[in-house]
Records
---
Amino acid sequence: MRVFVTGASGWIGSAVVDELLAAGHEVTGLARSDASAAAVEAKGARVRRGDLDDLDGIRSGAHDAEAVIHLANKHDWSNMAASNAAERNATQAIGDVLAGTGRPFLIAAGVAALAQGRPATEADPSPFHGPESPRGGSENLALEFVDRGVHTVSLRFSPTVHGARDHGFIAHIAAIAREKGVSGYPGDGTNRWAAVHRTDAARMVTLGLEKAPAGSRLHAVAEEGVATKEIAEAIGRAFDLPVASIDPDDVQGHFGWIGSFFCMDLSATSAATRELLGWTPTGPTLIEDLDAGAYSPS
């Protein structure tokens, strides 16, 4: 299958490209820089130059493909309105091109705010609608295209997709710990984050492309929830730092923008995904990665 991948050189996207190629698919990756283009080409994939603001390029990539996997996101925490708008516009552009074709359209999403007081499941609908909501409400927008003849599948990733050289949330929290000289956790540290190793997440995406019915919501979740206190303790061990509770009133001051996320319970299950796809995570756990030095500065 000819697959167009946005975010092809990113943390998750680069692993997905590896899995797709290993499964025999032809891949074209969207790349916005010379370095990104070189990285995609080095894997044996084709390159389409552009970014999320290049809607004509995204439309062309979708038109030429038999399937689209949309993983790119600006993640500009200083201007979330712009990030959300770019995500929604790209989703709309891809959906419009694929309408009536029956082609697969897999789109990245998350597990945040899906459920209160329990782990989120695949049956939980996203509460985010409209351009002003997180990710521009792109998950629901993409799923609306099922009624227009698009084989949409939502890829809900754990808040931490971990592994060596990860530069996401856990890497940022570890950097704060090194800067502050203490590995902190919010309150009593009992709120939990779902987690999945990068290679397991990439394998789930490829299986989702090949097996998931239209309208599916898939959860890239290997661990239902790792307590934030456990995460902080593992960071403390990794960098020989003391571990301490951070008063909820001081969380934003201590952690900055990521503090609001670190306070959230972001647990989720993946029982339905595992049964549907025959997917069994086999990679290291988050704590195992931390203990093995995956987040040590290179």
---
Amino acid sequence: MRKIASRMSVMSGEGALSVYARAKQLEAEGRSIIHLELGEPDFHPGKSVIDSAAKALAEGKDRYCPVNGLPALKQELELYLDRTRHIKVAAENIVVAPGCKIALFQSMMALLEPGDEVLYPDPGFPGYASIALGLGAVPVPFALSSRNNLQPDPDEIASKITPRTRMLLTNSPGNPTGTVYRDDVQRAIAALAVKHDLWVLSDEIYARIIYGGEYLSMLRYPGMAERTLIIDGFSKSFAMTGWRLGYTVAPPEVVPALNMMVVNTYTCVAEFTQYAAIEALRDRESITPRMVAEFARRRDQFSRDLNTVPGFRCLPPDGAFYAWVDITGTGMTAEDICRILLEDAGVAAIPGAAFGDEGKDFVRFSFASSTETLKEAIDRIQKVSTAWQGTAAVR
């Protein structure tokens, strides 16, 4: 009998996408749904970015192009990372990909052997563990707990490093918690990576979306240049989710392996979108700063309003655009809360366990929607909160 490869049975989907599918089904049935499940900005690229893509198409820039990205785009990324993150990278060490997931997948595939252990944050992006398992590696979570203000604990990470540990994943600002790793935490993680000669994958997709202070890339710490791969892209900081544009910054010896992966998979990223990406990086219309300022206003308002819901507790995140809500005060499970919110209130949110075991008492809401939409969501949530107000007292 024909079989599906066994590796597929150990990989998992994304809770956000499954909730989205059910929400769209309810919409098709005529229900009004407020979508707070997907991490998709409600902004769009500026006119100059759109015009750049159109101009490139009109000029016939829809052909095969260099495997690892247009030289002009990689040179612009070199300038951009220096300007916004104060890190020095060489254009030739950048590999452009059709989205961050592909960049993450090909980086892990290039560096991991079956049986290698991968340290990753829990709660965290579901793809970390899923990709590791699909490659035959062993994902090993380290906790982002409320007891530690959702910061990684370097002592816990150190305790989980074994002779099989090969890679450590960081994500700051993080999905789903919005945590921005403190300088002392990152410095300690970097020291562990150097001591144990680990590869570090630094997922920096939300690097531009922080609410105060300077962003500190993992690449800035001693000994990290030769072992760190940065995963980043255009979906979040430039509101270009559907354009599918990401990139990896890698040590020189890793780049040929990533190029080989490109040759054997997607060949190259669409040429005209790369020209638009150059314009996005220059950000002549200040789209990104204006978007982040608006997210900051929504963060303040939405977290304040969520704390008026009986049984909810929400601290404003330091980065990204997610509200990570502790629902232990409701006396119900996060899954039940999310079911009530979607089916009865028409508000789509994600139960925290979709991001790992440490998230079981939380619900994630995206506040990348308009202020009016967020206020309507709170009104709906308040109305259905009667479903759990008695439960907490009994418990």
---
Amino acid sequence: MPDLDHAEQFLAATGRILDRRRFERLFRGGDAEPVRAAVLAYRNADGGFGQGLEPDGRTPGTQPAATEQALRILDQADAWDDDVATRACDQLQAAAPEEGGAIFVAANAEGWPRAPWWQTQEGFSLISTGQILGTLLRRGVRHPWVDAASEVVWRRIDALADPGAYELYGVLRFLEAVPDRERAVQALERAEPAIREVVTLDPEATGEVHGPLGFAPQPDSIARRLFDADIIATHLDHLAAGQQEDGGWTFNFPAWSPAQEADWRGSVTVDSLDTLRRNERLPD
């Protein structure tokens, strides 16, 4: 079993206040307001989020990836704020590409420290749009951006061809929450071959691999039906055993700066524990 006290000490030593507050809320009975306040520290005047909230992009300017993380954290910690979500949607609508939805990396990343894969673009991103919509739809947010972006995502899913793992994360986050459940199940069936193409079933595989828990982290995840129970159990065992000597978890993609590595490790530690909690793998 993971050691929650050791994880808490790890976050106290190296984690952002955001992840310390998330841990407190999820595992120590903490209040929602400190999580909300920590998230809002990353909000910009336009209603979107930046300031390095997504550790791979250190620009202060608003980025879709940072907005996605802000909304997801507020949802995860049950610290939701409808006004925050509405203002974020207003910003997304104002910055939307011609097709609708959201881009991957906004131009304001230029000149700031960022991951090598953070390349600016102008067009629609299934990665950003699908994941942001997943949270907003789950919370029942009504906004013109949500409606227009959903239509674009449906069109992209209908024409899905050779997607990568991150595009599939966007697809599945959207399908988790979209109201038309019958259409979502049908879309999952079409996406299944692509998921099986990129998923790594060996929990000991090294490198930047994508295991079943990335696509189906919760017992009620729409993609959980694609994986045998013993496969899920094996990956949960591996995740539980992934706590490092310092108390935290780590990630399998490149670390490119000490700050990025520390921020991601804190984030991944809380998310790993949350996945284990939701799968009843933590001590009572």
